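As noted in the main text, all predictions were made from sequence alone. Below is one such record, for non-specific serine/threonine protein kinase.
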Amino acid sequence: MDFEAELRKLELVPIRLIGRDALRCVHLVYNIQYGTVAAKIFQSEKCDQKEFDAAFHLFIDKGVNQFVLQYLQLREGVHNKTILMQYANLGSLDSIVKQPQIQLPTNMLRVIMRQTLQGIKFIHNSGLVHRNIKSNNILLHSPPGSGRVYAKISDFGFAKKEDPETGVKFLEGF
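Prediction:
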C-alpha cells in the first residue's frame, strides 16, 4: 500500500517516515488545522479504532496532560484509518537506551521516571490501565525554544478500562 498517497487523499502533507511495522506506519505530516503532527496509518481490515477510543476517552474525561501523548483526530479513508497525534520531536526513549555511547545522567533518568509515573497516575485516575509501558512507548518531546524535555506516554492499543466501583476491567485497545 502506498501510505503517502493515502495520506495525501486525507489532505495531509507527508514530510518523512518516522517508523513502520507489519500493521502500520507513522509519518511526520503537515495538517492545516494542527500544523506538524504524527500520523499513524493502518489498513482498515488489520485494525480497529480501539487505540484511538482509549486515548480519546482519556482526554474527554481528564483533559490534556503534559506527560501523555495527545491524540487529536481519527480520519477514515477508503482502505485505512489514520490517527493524528502530537509529534514528539526527540523520538522514543528506546532509541536512546539502545545507544551505548549515550549515557544519561542519573538526574535526567530520575526526571524521565518521575514524568512517566505522573503520566501513569493521570491514566489510572481516568480509569484506564495502559498495560504496555516500555521504552518504545515513552516518547520524548522538547517544545521549540523551551530548553525542556518531556516524557510522553503513547500507544494505548492494549489499554483497559477499569470500573472503579467493581474493579471489573473492560478491553479498550486491540
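The mean pLDDT is 85. The domain at 3-85 is CATH 3.30.200.20 (Phosphorylase Kinase; domain 1). These features were considered when defining construct boundaries for the mutagenesis experiments described in Section 2.9.
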